[in-house]
Amino acid sequence: MNQPFFCRIALVASVSFALLFFAGHTSATEISGMISSTLTIMDDSELTGDVTCTVAGAPCIAFGAPRITLRLNGFTIAGPADPLSPATGCTSTTVFAPEDGIDVLQDGVAILGPGRVRNFRRWGILLGSFANGTSIKQVAVKHVTFSGNCFSGLQTAQISDSKIEGNIFARNAGGSDGFGCGGT
Amino acid sequence: MVSSNHNRVRLNTFYGNGSVPFTNPPGPGFVSNNFGLGLFGTSSDNLIERNRIGGNLNGLLLGGSNVAGNVIRGNVIVGNPPVQVSREFGASTGVDIQDHSNMGANTFEDNRCLEYTGALDPKPCPNIARHDDDEDQQDRDIAAFSRKRLAFPQARLVDAVFHPSGRPVYQGAVGSPNPGQTAPPDSVTVTGKVVDAACYMLHVAAAMSVSHMECGAACLARGVPLAIATDDGVLYFPADGNQRLKSLLNARVRASGPVVEKHDPMELKMPVGDKNQMVVRVEGGYKQITIQTLEKMLAVKRRPA
Fold first, then answer.
1. Which residue, of B64, B97, B117, is where some domain finishes?
2. Chain A closest CA to B151's CA: distance in Å?
């Protein structure tokens, strides 16, 4: 995790179109531009432009609080993977680095489209965790388009009472290399 | 989906997902574990409904004996895998539904599909009998409204059809001089909840629920009239339109002002999707209030009986 990190978040609440460069936790409400270290959102947030992720070894965006919403507003969150060159563009089943678009380990959160999550080196979105005794509930993912992610577009692990509705999953799992993957 | 329970996976589209291994290319008899939608581990009691699943290496994959209690209904699962994949890697590569769960552990209802591998007998595929698309579903929804959900005795669904959407109609409820007015205005105070009037007349319980907030807001944005619904079910339509009530949707309010009885029919048009609308005609009169004072009231907490 010794990667140089910064993220660019446009905060329009008080300073119109000002770009602030920082990493780590934020209560940002508006997100756009490049993210190179995991952005943890702590409050309702929304995309105000396309997002390009260059985060290595970690997810691009993580939820840091329960019961908050990320609205994609028709924009795209794009990872660095090349699904047509999976041997080099994707993480492998042995390394399996968590280079996902969005990781969710909080109850009651929502990711609402329209919007697109594409070309991540592992999963487009991971809801939950594979760790024993870890579970989340009441998550919603609606109207999001997942495409070109190396493993599954959306992976869920130990989630309950959640809604996955109105999404499109197209041409994911191009780099799964025998690992059981697909749309969801 | 791994060990995920009691979830709803509905109305999604899964097209063209999955690939064959690239480091160890498959040989004869290859069976892919890639899918459009997959349930693994102890995934149980999920509702998989009305999804479209095509062109994936497998359409739906139920991945083991602990996958149970799931209801899979109303999905269209065809074209898995693409024919080119079958030609390249063999006919066993994938199917519409690949089911490794125990026989009878999951429920398949009314899916359109062609190919199935698994223990079920009779197999749920091929099943080509089901005819459905969004238009059919809309027809059924409308029929359901008119059959059993019309809760307001003065309202009826006009012809139970969709009409092309134009600007929302708010006939009669706007405070212009109206020959239908028969009684002189009396100033009264009414207490009730601000509701999306059209929905309220179709289904009172739905319109009053918290879950209707988002839908009600969408209707409001499209110009559907608001009204104050009193505890005894009387609707008071504001004479000046939605302006004063729009920030109070679903709030309990007290409003005072002259009330008149209107006797001419009123049509409320509800948006349905982007292009359609549903028309509710109110007959037999309605009450219109010219709001002079308006205050938001604190939520009433009822004591348990």
1. B117
2. 29
Interface test with A, best of B2, B5, B12, B62 (most A CBs within 10 A): B12
ipTM for the predicted complex comes to 0.85
**Whether B184 and B89 share a structural domain:** no
User: B195 and B264 share a domain?
Assistant: yes
The tally of domains found in chain B comes to 2
Do residues B125 and B111 lie in contact, with contact meaning Cβ atoms separated by under 8 Å? Answer: yes
Q: Report yes or no on B129 lying in a domain.
A: no
Shared domain for B89 and B166, answered yes or no, is no
Q: Which residues in A153-170 are b (16+ Cβ under 10 Å) and which e? A: bbbbbbbbebbbbbbbbb
B17 with A170: Cβ contact below 8 A: yes
Q: Say how many CA atoms lie within 13 Å of A129 toward its Cβ.
A: 11
In tens digits, chain B (305 residues) has pLDDT values of 999 999 999 999 999 999 999 888 888 889 999 999 999 999 999 999 999 999 999 999 999 999 999 999 999 999 999 999 999 999 999 999 999 999 999 999 999 999 999 999 999 999 987 555 566 666 666 666 656 555 665 666 654 444 444 433 343 333 333 444 444 566 889 999 998 888 787 777 667 766 666 667 777 777 788 999 988 888 899 988 888 898 888 889 999 999 888 877 777 777 666 666 677 777 777 888 999 999 988 765 545 54
| Contact with chain A for residue B213, Cβ under 8 A | no
A86 to B19: CB separation less than 8 angstroms, yes or no: yes
- B215 and B259: one domain? yes
Are the beta carbons of A171 and B17 separated by less than 8 Å? yes
**Interface residue A106 vs chain B (CB under 8 A):** no
Contacts of A157 in chain B (CB under 8 A): 2-4
Question: In whole angstroms, what is the distance from residue A70 CA to residue A129 CA?
Answer: 19
Contact B15 A169 (CB under 8 A): yes
Predicted TM-score of the model (pTM): 0.64
Both B109 and B194 in one domain: the answer is no
Q: Give residue B66's domain range.
A: 8-117
Q: Considering CB atoms only, which of A160, A178, A180 is closest to B7?
A: A160
| Domain definitions of chain A by residue range | 7-170
Q: Is position B233 within any domain?
A: yes
What stretches of chain B show up as alpha helix (H) in DSSP? 83-89, 134-144, 197-202, 204-208, 213-221
Please indicate if any CB of chain B lies within 8 Å of the CB of A94.
no
As a whole number of angstroms, the distance between CA B197 and CA B289 comes to 14
